[in-house]
Amino acid sequence: MQNTGTVRFTILFKDVYISKLVMLTLVSVFGFILGFLVGRPKTIRRLGDDFNDPYQTDVKTDTLSDEDKEYIN
């Protein structure tokens, strides 16, 4: 709370008189929002993995070996 004094900030060739506490808060909020937008995970696009061909007949649904089946049982 020591930064409540009014000071002059030059923003785009314009002088603005505002308290340091308000300016620190504005810059912190702007930095948080910018960091959140830049750092968020992107959506993953898969090419070809989601396509199911209804006419494909050679699809093996049982891919376990006999040894694996025995171990599970």
Structural commentary:
The chain is α+β, with helices and mostly antiparallel strands. It has a domain of 40 residues. The chain is 37% helix and 16% strand. The protein is built from two helices and two strands; from the N terminus they run ββαα. A two-stranded antiparallel sheet has the order 1-2. Strand 1 and strand 2 form a beta hairpin. 0% of the residues are buried.
SSE blueprint and pairings:
Elements: E1 6-11, E2 14-19, H1 20-39, H2 66-72
Antiparallel strand pairs: 1-2
The class by helix and strand makeup works out as: alpha+beta
Q: Beta-sheet strand percentage? A: 15-25%
Major sheet strand order: 1-2
User: Share of helix among residues?
Assistant: 25-40%
Instruction: Note the total helix count.
Output: 2
Give the overall average pLDDT.
81
Shape: elongated
Low-confidence stretches: none
The total beta strand count reads 2
Radius of gyration: 30 Å
* Largest sheet: number of strands, sense, barrel closure: 2 strands, antiparallel
The string of secondary-structure elements, in order, is: EEHH
Measure the end-to-end span.
Answer: 68 Å
